[in-house]
Amino acid sequence: MEVAYRELTLGIAALFSDPETAHGGLPALDRLLHLGQYALGAPGMAIAELNEAGSGRVIAASGTAAWALGRPVQPYVVAAACRPGPPTYRIELGAIDDESSDQMASLGSRWIMLHRVDVDGAPVALLGAFVAEDRAADPDELAVMALLGATVGRLYAEQAGLPVQSHGNLGELADRELFIAVTSHELRTPVTVIKGYADTLRDHWSQLDEKARRDAARVIGQRSDELARLVDRLLAASTDSAAGTLSLGPFDLVEALRQAAANLPADLRRRIRLELPERMPLAYGDRTTIPNVLTELATNADKYSGRDEPVVLSAAHDRRTVLFQVLDRGIGIAPEQVHRVFERFWQADSGDGRRYGGAGLGLYLVRKTIERQNGWVSLRPRDGGGTVAEVRLPRGDVKRDAPASGEA
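RE: above sequence
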């Protein structure tokens, strides 16, 4: 096939001079994928970042691979992909999990041209191009993959905003100290408010009118609810049992979302705009977790955006998954932060003077909960400003047949 070498080389050169991508990170990886997709004429491309545990996660995707953004890559898939020998090779769809294989096939892909990115002799990422024709890769395509892979390897070797995810290198003591610091910081605010209003009622009851007493009781109730939710989060995060006991089965996601939205706090409920279809294929997961997941995502959208724009709740489906999105027009999220926000205790706005409260646990628990249901969650900037939070679950009406595998 004809490869757009000139556009590719000029694009890579521009990548290192453009202020938006010169510092690496996800902006540079996203740019590389679009360059590679154009040069190869591929329907989609993706990059999975690997970790020390032998698993990985899709951190950038384009074209027909966009659905996989945020998806975990299981250790057996990483082991099959990180084979010895030449860094670029063909991998059959049957070598990956059944759901991903079927999804890629439904979008027109026949096999994956995979490039293993090594730094200092160790694999750090997998670069994949989806191929629509059942044919062998030609030398020009292999050269393009080698060039793209070398560019990704350079960014990782220079630690240019990569890796995008923490690999959990905190020691046990450091993790415990961080937990104590976050706990003490976040518990202090609701406890102080509750104590203040309780003291006011105790010391000035006779001076307060009925409305003032009711207002004080209302604030105490609200802050007590916040305190209870925070304690639940801290306990779940500290024991790493974020999702609790799950009861998996088929359920109507649209109905679950409508009910969850109706039970949001009044201020948030008034701000939510539903753009849900009348019906969709069933989801497969634990319906009882949907209210908590929606509450976390909608609360985040509400907290980080102004009051003039609605928070939109939408849903859709494809061959293998059902999904819902929470979209806002808020301050947005920096590309280099879209994966870190799911880490335990992580805060984009840290320090005592930060504008937004929170323990950095809500999105961590969302990810843990959804991934225990064989789904995944991702965040990305929204076109025109704001953020898109997307949750995907397996479809509940799809039979999971194991496709045949084999090396070409």
